[in-house]
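hey all, quick one before standup. I had two proteins in the batch that finished overnight and I want to keep them in one place so we stop losing track of which output belongs to which input. First protein below, input sequence then structure tokens straight from the run.
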Amino acid sequence: MSFLVDGLQYSNWSEAIFRQLRAGGVDAVHVTITYHETFRETVANIERWNRWFELFPELVFQGFTAEDIALARRTGRTAIFFGAQNPSCIEDDIGLVEVLHRLGLRFLQLTYNNQSLLAAGCYEAEDGGLTRMGREVVAEMNRVGMVVDMSHSGERSTLEAIAHSTRPVAVTHANPSDWHPALRNKSDRVIRALAESGGMLGFSLYPHHLKGGSACTLQDYAAMIARTAERYGIAMLGIGSDLCQDQPDSVVAWMRAGRWTKRVDYGEGSAEAPGFPAMPRWFRDARDFGALRDGLAAVGFAGGEIDAILGGNWERFFHTSFGVAVPEQKRAAQ
């Protein structure tokens, strides 16, 4: 069996959840450590993670390179890779990209639903694409080895990021929009561009991104993955569960509204107060990856193909994404 890697979680972390990761055999997970926080607030969140690493060293440790996935497997632990779902953590200072990378940040979304200093979010009526700063930040992320994540970005912004980036781009947690037309899900044009550029798509299990919501069946979800593989190939497919386990509903208000509005931002097309929907009964937490494996086998995937989707592809992508780029003049001298 290959590595098991989850491309995105934003759970309310605890010893119980860390033990579920181990019970589920999860070798690595990309975790959101910041949404709308400033740089200093993000550092405070890293401090909190440092304390968890200190308290539970037999369960989790911080991942910095792709090799840490293999280390996690050898030592029976889970490697935690940090990510941000909004560029607010770099404020208006491009130098903070490298600082945060040195602190372990390996993924940065250019937008979270709204227009940012870097690009337009998927909830904006107008998508002007990458901004001037956006192009510079993408280049800096390419240089230091930080993944450009376009999960919550608009169509034009996503396509421009794919075209502008010298490293493959990721959509860590979304599904095809022709399967379920959520604003956050991605079009054929975007997924095809990702595939052609060596990027990655992490299939989301968050109910708002699923056809049928919480009632989505494992068979329908697995069939959607099979159709995507037929269209674009298997090499760019992974899982980004978007688990928000044990989070209080108040966190949804922070995710959607942050500090940018005084009103309640319902989001996701909902007319009700924001709250977390129930997960599908076949995927409640990390211990259910075995059920997902069974579902993929049931729709015709071979063992090696399932291994690739459940972690092998992410592991390969980490290898090409996290290393510091060598300047051309230095590379020529080597």
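OK second protein, same deal, sequence then tokens:
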Amino acid sequence: MIVERYYSSLTAVIGLILLVVLFVYIQPMILSPFGVTLSANQGTALALAALAQLIVVLTGGVDLSVGAIVGLTNAIAATYMGTHPGIAAAVLIGTLAAGTLAGFVNGLVVAYGRIQPIIVTLATLYIFTGIGLVIRPQPGGLVPGGFADALTRSWGYLPHALVFLLAVVGLAWVPLMRSRLGRAIQAIGDNRNGAHVSGISVARTELWAYTAGGFFAACAGIFLTAQTTSGDATIGASYTLNSVAAVVFGGAVLGGGRGVALGPICGAYFLSLLISVLFAGGVSPFYQNLLLGAILVIVLAVANSWRLRTRHWLRVMSN
């Protein structure tokens, strides 16, 4: 059933809708084409990073290097697009390849080194950040104006950012999750031993899940490059924990096996928009982090309670 599949995402969807209503009440200008585009741009990079985190969480793991891969790919794109604008397309392909390779390294060590994901990705967080700093020691770089406009402008009320996000979801995420690999990823997260007995290669599945996570993190890095028109190897620092928060708020289970893209994407936009709402509401910057954390705790507690009640209701209805 569709309800059964997406019920875990309802709290993130409803939360985002209510937050948008509050934002419109505080700042009506947000409904202008510029306001809609600005809001979409602010949340898209985190939404893509949340997909990178989700694919790993579905296996029962966690990737602390998501933000580092975002920063690394941002540094690569901004550095080499600026020095070689004539081959911007090749640089973008190389950037995607670099992020995917970073994810592959994570998966290789986790799957075949048999080391806890949190330990491996904590180590690679420093490694990828270090590589990014070698490439781009100081914030800077340059990107072609056409590239930035292609991802951050809009057609009226339709932001290019949302088109880019939907393209990534439609062309990469959906086919992946409907494939044999996607089913295997969810299977090992739900019951690792059972998946192994069923003939699924747990190690190979983990390897490709982390590799896919690197790809989606690279997509976030590329969008961030268009948004900021510069590169900074440390810019992704906040994306790691925020991506985990978006995934949890979006209904995915950290133990693995359960989660759909809709919830974490809405959770990512919720987190990004919440900062703007606090600013528009006149909250002092000194108190924004305090309120952000408190609101997040309350929202996650309500979301968890909602999911438990809904899960019980669905079980009763199915019986």
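Flagging for whoever picks this up: The chain has one domain: 2-318. The mean pLDDT is 88.
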